[in-house]
Design brief:
By secondary structure, the protein is α/β, with parallel strands linked by helices. It is built from 7 helices and 11 strands. It has a single domain, classed as Alpha-Beta Complex (Spore Coat Polysaccharide Biosynthesis Protein SpsA, Chain A), CATH 3.90.550. The strands form 3 sheets. A 7-stranded mixed beta sheet has the order 5-4-1-6-10-7-11, sandwiched between helices. Strands 2-3 form a two-stranded antiparallel ribbon. Strands 8-9 form a two-stranded antiparallel ribbon.
Length: 240
């Protein structure tokens, strides 16, 4: 496998209550985006890393992190209005020799190597795979007034996570056939829309997506509990 990884990082962090966007907030000494990218930078099966950013953040990113981007060989691509638009733009920069494309949320810095290994292996075997967690809580559907309408059976329901990994030709075809106005919240749905099956690979809830300030504190606790932290590759002199 030769995997190109796309990290969508163009979001506006509207639900994050701190002054900094969540992808650039400090997480125990290093920005979230850098902690996430470092999880993939030394893998022999990764041939390319693309960080998709909001164009308004470009000057700030280069001012703070240009040395890190160069050292880790991370490409910057300006994103679009929706997440799908950002991924579609990144697809134009994928290397010709890549066999697979992975998409990983830039604000999931706690995914473990064993789970990355597993989802990559499953994608290689089945063509498409994503990390996910079986739903264990009772699920309710409510109306606009938050009154319960129905209890949804949780059997065979999963919480989708990332990385999501696909054969390059599957993902490229899915985006080429994308219908205007179709904006799924993950890339597995995009691939499913053209008839390809996607394999679920079980992963724990520690692979959380940082959305709120509370999630940030939980991520700090998770990282501190790990026995072998990643060696820092952050250059403080790149900061403002």
């Amino acid at each position: 496998m030769k995997i190109s990884i796309i990290f969508p990082a163009a979001g506006k962090s509207s639900r994050f209550t701190q002054n900094e966007k969540k992808q650039f907030i400090d997480l125990d000494g290093r920005p979230v985006w850098l902690r996430t990218v470092e999880l993939f930078c030394n893998r022999e099966d990764v041939c390319q890393m693309i960080l998709v950013i909001n164009p308004e953040d470009r000057d700030m990113i280069l001012r703070r992190y240009q040395a890190n981007l160069a050292f880790l060989e991370v490409q910057l691509i300006d994103g679009g209005e929706e997440r799908c638009d950002s991924v579609q733009r990144a697809l134009k920069a994928i290397r010709n020799d890549a066999t697979h494309i992975a998409i990983h949320d830039i604000v999931r810095p706690c995914v473990e190597t064993k789970h990355i290994d597993s989802v990559f292996q499953n994608a290689n075997e089945f063509g498409g795979a994503l990390l996910a967690t079986p739903l264990v809580h009772t699920l309710k559907r409510a109306d606009s007034a938050r009154n319960i309408e129905v209890t949804v059976p949780r059997k065979n329901l999963w919480l989708a996570q990332t990385p999501q990994v696909f054969k390059k030709e599957w993902l490229v075809e899915a985006y080429e056939k994308r219908i205007p106005g179709f904006n799924p919240t993950d890339d597995a749905e995009m691939v499913e829309s053209i008839g390809h099956p996607v394999r679920l690979v079980e992963c724990g809830l520690s692979n959380l997506k940082i959305t709120t300030s509370e999630d940030l504190e939980l991520a700090k606790s998770i990282l501190k509990s790990r026995s072998k932290p990643i060696e820092p590759r952050f250059h403080p002199f790149c900061e403002d």
